[in-house]
Specification:
Helix 4 crosses helix 5, helix 5 packs across helix 6 and helix 9 crosses helix 13. Helices cover 37% and strands 18% of the residues. Pathway: Glycan biosynthesis; glycogen biosynthesis.
């Protein structure tokens, strides 16, 4: 008889498909199924936002918290979208419409420190009360879970903390600390104090038994002053506990052969229907109906980190070589305006949709010839994984997880039949433009491009390998703590 699965409590502020603002949700939603194949049973604790409460309507309460930072709360047990869930039903903290983190005027909720301290405190309570073998906390919003575990009563439950993006650190004024219910000793350099503030991500890094981040190259980059964003010293000090484990995709959720969002479905064995998707995408975004124009797509946040300004600066290389550009995303208002301005100045050549649109994103991956991911830094990135899965070879900056997941189709790679996309460095508009030109040249070499596209479609972007590494970490912690 096989041993019982190891029980792990995941803690996160979002989880696809229940609530999503970015790639964090995709990871939290997909990893439990991959870990189940490795004999790890994941239960995910989420805040009780309105959409989450709607999805778990009628769920049974399993725990009561009479006063959680200003009001009563309950923990509900539920199963939804194939996920085993615990939902923190605290209306005074989470019963707010719209974005999980932002007020209707676009500013952060003034009590976010208490909202996500509540999530960490509930995680520690649940982990002890329900006998979980480990806690897996994701990003700054779950960063205080480790502190509450460290300073809480027995039994001790070990924890893993995953950095999805070191740029978002969850720093709040020190005046919040007395309200968190932690001992004074916790507010120290050897704790959650960070340059005089309460650092939620710093707490996660300091108190976790193991730290992971979402690619091996990013794990190396964040230990340098250039990439560490003020935390490189701490991360160098914890190098023995820091692991870079690549993100993945759910291959069933992301499957061009079955994706109903695509006008024409296709597979690695029969990629020909992609041509119909390209034509439909050109129509949807007002681009000229030209099968002989290489179609690039940018899907993501319109932000400095993501290199959208570099794309705009490199437009002469793209448009001057007969290519088209599809842009989908939201973000910095100035970049949104520049994208719309470039579209107006180049009718039929550039199409822009300022929106967060999951269906249209699939359409872009399934119809574009190449996907641009020119990030200045990128912990892992999911856009390039989606592009590979949907047969649109990605053109990426050689940073973080982009460097780890895309094989540059240089001459030696092509000779070996190994290229899956294109990489460029340094991350400048000039190098991006030169690499766009190289990509167009490859696209026009139909035999070479068919090989690159076939390699992209054949790439294993699933969680299979990474789930084994996470499972090994949890098993190691459970054995050490036993």
């Amino acid at each position: 008889m096989p041993p019982a699965p190891l029980r792990v409590l995941a803690v996160a502020s979002e989880c696809y498909p229940l609530v999503k603002t970015g790639g964090l949700a995709d990871v939290v939603g997909a990893l439990p199924a991959a870990l189940a194949a490795e004999a790890v049973a994941v239960t995910t604790l989420l805040p009780g936002y309105p959409k989450v409460m709607e999805a778990v309507g009628g769920a049974a309460p399993v725990r009561s918290l009479p006063d959680l930072f200003g009001g009563p709360a309950r923990v509900l047990a539920a199963r939804a979208e194939g996920l085993e869930l615990r939902v923190l039903d605290a209306p005074h903290l989470y019963a707010r419409p719209g974005n999980p983190y932002l007020a209707p005027d676009g500013s952060e909720w003034g009590d976010n420190a208490l909202r996500f301290a509540g999530l960490g405190a509930a995680a520690a309570l649940l982990a002890r009360a329900e006998g979980f073998a480990a806690v897996h906390a994701h990003d700054w919003q779950a960063g205080l879970a480790g502190a509450y575990l460290r300073y809480g009563p027995a039994p001790r439950v070990p924890s893993v903390f995953t950095i999805h993006n070191l740029a978002f650190q969850g720093q709040f004024p020190a005046t919040f600390f007395p309200r968190l219910g932690l001992p004074p000793a916790a507010f120290a350099m050897a704790g959650l104090e960070h340059y005089g503030s309460v650092g939620f991500l710093k707490s996660g890094l300091w108190f976790a038994d193991r730290i992971t981040t979402v690619s091996p190259t990013y794990a190396a980059e964040i230990r340098t002053p250039e990439g560490g964003m003020g935390l490189d010293g701490l991360l160098r000090g914890r190098s023995d506990s820091l692991h870079g484990i690549l993100n993945g995709l759910d291959p069933e959720e992301w499957n061009p052969a079955t994706d109903a969002r695509l006008p024409a479905r296709f597979s690695a064995a029969d990629p020909a229907p992609r041509a119909a998707n390209k034509a439909a995408l050109q129509r949807r975004l007002g681009l000229a109906a030209d099968p002989d124009a290489p179609l690039f797509a940018f899907v993501g946040r319109l932000a400095w980190q993501k290199g959208m300004d570099l794309v705009l600066e490199a437009l002469p290389a793209l448009l001057g070589n007969g290519a088209q550009l599809a842009i989908l995303g939201t973000g910095d208002a100035a970049l949104e305006a520049r994208c719309l301005g470039a579209t107006a100045a180049n009718p039929g050549r550039i199409g822009t949709m300022i929106a967060f649109d999951e269906a249209l994103a699939r359409f872009c991956y399934g119809g574009a010839d190449l996907v641009l991911v020119p990030s200045r830094f990128e912990p892992c990135g999911l856009a390039q994984l989606c592009a590979l899965r949907y047969g649109a070879p990605p053109l990426v900056a050689r940073v973080g997880g982009l460097a780890d997941t895309v094989i540059d189709a240089n001459e030696m790679a092509l000779a070996a039949g190994a290229g899956t996309g294109l990489q460029f460095a340094p991350v400048t508009a000039e190098m991006l433009g030169a690499t766009i030109q190289r990509g167009i040249g490859l696209w026009r070499d139909r035999a070479a491009w068919r090989r690159i596209q076939a390699n992209a479609l054949a790439t294993d972007v699933s969680w299979r390998r990474s789930a084994r590494r996470y499972a090994a970490l949890f098993q190691e912690l459970a054995a050490t703590d036993a």
